Amino acid sequence: MSDRQRPDGDLVxxxxxxxxxxxxxxFVERLERxxxxxxxxxxxxxxxxxxxxxxxxxxxxxxxxxxSLAAMDYAAQRLPDLGLVLNSPVGWIGSLLLGAWVLRxxxxxxx
Length: 111
Hints:
Blueprint: H1 9-18, H2 24-78, H3 80-86, H4 89-105
Helix pairs in contact: 2-3
């Protein structure tokens, strides 16, 4: 259809008749219901994912603890003086300094 042709009158009337505006109150109520439903759905999904994460953490924890104990046993056998150093006051001060440095690098002390 070119710009010079006139639009079909029947078609225009059908479009105008089909166009109905929602009252403002009904539109707002419908929008609020949809938003509340989406919030509830999102909250339910977040709770479900948190529960799955907690279950996964509970299932993995024994293996992580066992691996950590095996790594420390290996380190204690290979470096027997390391345990003595870590239990000394110098080791405590060193670990405190290292921890403070890590926290500073992670920007924990900044506001």
